Amino acid sequence: MDNLSEIARQEPECLRDIGEQAWIHYMVEVTKIKSKKLCSYFDESDPFLFRQVETLIKQKVIQDIVIFRSRVVDHALTKSLCGKLLLARTYPNNIHIADVEFSNPYKPVRKNERRYSCHEFRSLGLFSTLFDNVLRHSKKNKISKITLSVPSLDQTKYFEEHGFSIEKTEFSKHQIASGMSIPMERQCI
C-alpha cells in the first residue's frame, strides 16, 4: 500500500480497472441505480479513480495490493518478461486478479497459431496453480468473489473454464460492445 504511486506508474490500467470495478459493484449491489457521477474519471484513464470512488462510497476500495514481475536474464531475448501479476483485495470483499502473464520468452507463438489476441508466447501453465491458491485463500478468509478483467472477448472462454462468468451489468455490456476489457467474476462463498 505504501507504493501505490509506483504501481500506478507501472500498471495504471490495472489500478483504474480496480476503481471501475469498485464503482460498478457499489452501483449494482448497494444502490441498484445507474449513475453517471464518475463518467469524467472513466474517460480520463485516471489510475487513481479508486480514490474518487472511496470519497463517494465512504469506504476503502483497496485494502491490500501486491505486484510481481519476473524476468529472464538473457540479453539475446527481445522480451525478457516471463511473469507478471497484480493481486488486490478490493471493495466490497473481493480479490481482484489483474494483469496476469506467465509466458516463456523462448517460445514465441506464430500469428496463425495464436488462440487469443495477446497470445504472443507459450504459456508456462501456471494460472491454474495460482487460481487454486487464490481460491483456497479466498474461501479461508471469507472473500465473496474473485474478479478479473480480460482484454478481449476471445479470452473469456479460458476463464469460464475456471468458473468465471461475465458480470451481468450494463457496464459489462458496454465494455463488450466497445471492445474494451470485460469484467468477469467467480463466487467464492
Write a structural description:
This protein is of the alpha+beta class and 189 residues long. The protein has one domain (4-187): Gcn5-related N-acetyltransferase (GNAT) (Aminopeptidase). The protein contains seven helices and seven strands; from the N terminus they run ααααββββαβαβαβ. Strands 1, 2, 3, 4, 5, 6 and 7 form a seven-stranded mixed sheet that branches. A hairpin with a 3-residue loop joins β2 (81-90) and β3 (94-108). α1 (4-10) packs across α2 (12-31) and α2 (12-31) runs parallel beside α4 (49-57). The longest helix has 20 residues, at 12-31.
Question: Could you give a quick summary of the protein structure above?
Answer:
The protein is of the alpha+beta class.
Mean pLDDT: 89
CATH architecture: 3-Layer(aba) Sandwich
CATH homologous superfamily name? Gcn5-related N-acetyltransferase (GNAT)
Alpha carbon gap, first and last residue: 26 Å
CATH topology: Aminopeptidase
| Backbone CA Rg | 17 Å
Question: Which bin fits the share of residues in helices?
Answer: 25-40%
Number of strands: 7
Features of the shown structure:
alpha+beta; seven-stranded mixed sheet; 189 residues; globular; 7 helices; Aminopeptidase
Topology, element by element:
Blueprint: H1 4-10, H2 12-31, H3 39-44, H4 49-57, E1 62-71, E2 81-90, E3 94-108, E4 121-123, H5 127-140, E5 145-150, H6 156-160, E6 165-166, H7 170-177, E7 182-187
Parallel strand pairs: 3-5
Antiparallel strand pairs: 1-2, 2-3, 3-4, 5-7, 6-7
